[in-house]
């Protein structure tokens, strides 16, 4: 079979291109830590991590905006100041169930009738930023304890919808009661009417 020079050149060119593509090493996706105004985040190529991520043998949790969570508790898993999961989760989960029962008993001891138990709705390690935040400033104002007593400690919050609360008649509505627990003890809480109210929180017994 006779191959023309022009066709032979095409065959050689195609062969060289195929060989070159086959021998190019795959591009590596580099994973790096970054920091911005929202804190630390972890990127892999053009994507940033969200949710749980194991990095160099340690577990971290990244919020929906990519920022690393720290000094908090995610679904019973405690993260330290470096964002690393503290590997004592089984005990944490047991303690969480105990705290839930303590909160429930406390609400009932006040004479309130629980119509809905919403369980744990928040958990964090208290720091200066949390104390001075706009969200928590009003909540601490209605507590009998001072927040500085609990700096560096974990606080779990349990929510109940109740009847027979002092605010029920005032707002013609059931009331949400939030119980704050630290180290297995009730340290405070607050109340919010279910309907007809848009202001700050009330104390557990319905006072501002």
From TrEMBL:
Membrane spanning stretches: 12-33
Ranges of the Cell wall-binding repeats in the UniProt entry: 49-68
InterPro entries named in the record: Cell_wall/Cho-bd_repeat
Keywords: Membrane, Repeat, Transmembrane, Transmembrane helix
Membrane found in the keyword field: yes
Keyword Transmembrane part of the UniProt annotation: yes
UniProt protein name: DUF4830 domain-containing protein
Native source organism of the sequence: Clostridium beijerinckii
